[in-house]
Amino acid sequence: MRKMLWAVGAAAVTWGFLGPQAQAAFTHPFRFFERPHAEAPRTPPSVQPSAALGARLYVRACESCHGPRGNGEGFWPLPDGESAPALDSLGPSSQAALHQIIGQGKGMMPGWSQVMNPTEIRSLVLYVQSLNPPKKG
User: Fold this and answer.
1) Within the chain, what is the greatest distance between any pair of CA atoms?
2) Does position 84 have pLDDT exceeding 80, yes or no?
3) From CA 124, how far away is CA 66, in angstroms rounded?
4) Domain ranges of the chain
5) Which long-range contacts (CB under 8 A, 24 or more apart) does 56-60 make?
6) Which numeric CATH code is attached to 51-130?
7) Can you tell me the distance from the alpha carbon of 131 to that of 127, in angstroms, rounded to the nearest whole number?
8) Could you give the C-alpha distances from 79 to 61, 86, 103, in angstroms and in order?
9) Phi, psi of 61 (to 5 degrees)
10) What is the pLDDT of residues 64-73, one digit of tens each?
11) pLDDT tier for residue 21 given thresholds of 50, 70 and 90
C-alpha cells in the first residue's frame, strides 16, 4: 500500500511541477530519445540547373560508387562484387536517357527521384555530361 501511495504522490508532485509535459512523459516516456524525422535539405526549385550544383550533388550521392573522377573506381565495390559503371566513358547519350537512369535507377543503382527534385537531377545530368567531353576527330 505504501508503494502505491508513494507512486501516486510522486506522480502528483511531477504533475504539479511539469503540468501537461508530465502527461506526455507518462503516455510516451521515450519520446525524448527519438530522433526527429527531418527531411534532407533540398535545393529550391527556383534555382537553375547547373553543372556546379551537379558536382556538389555528385559528391554527396554518387562519388562513393562511381569514384571521385567518375571512372568507376568507387570507395568500395558494389554488393555483387563488381565496380560501378564508369561515367567518364559513356559516349554520346541523350539527356533524357541520363535523366531517366538517375531518376529511376538501373541495375543496382537506386533511383534518386524520391530524394532529389527535378532541378537537382537535371544538374546531375549536366555534370555527368561534362565528364564526357566530345570526341575529336
Assistant:
1) 94
2) yes
3) 13
4) 2-26, 51-130
5) 57/116, 57/120, 57/123, 57/124, 57/127, 58/124, 58/127, 58/128
6) 1.10.760.10
7) 7
8) 17, 17, 21
9) -115, -25
10) 888 888 888 8
11) low
The residue type of 21 is Q
Cell numbers for 18, please give them: 511539469
Q: Is 135 exposed, middle or buried (0-12, 13-18, 19+ CB in 10 A)?
A: exposed
Residue 56 grid cell: 556538389
The predicted-structure confidence for 97-128, as pLDDT tens digits, reads as follows 889 999 999 888 889 998 899 999 999 999 99
**Residue whose grid cell is 571512372:** 71
Residues in the chain: 137
Q: Identify which of 51, 65, 43, 27 has the alpha carbon closest to the alpha carbon of residue 131.
A: 51
Location of C-alpha cell 512523459? 25
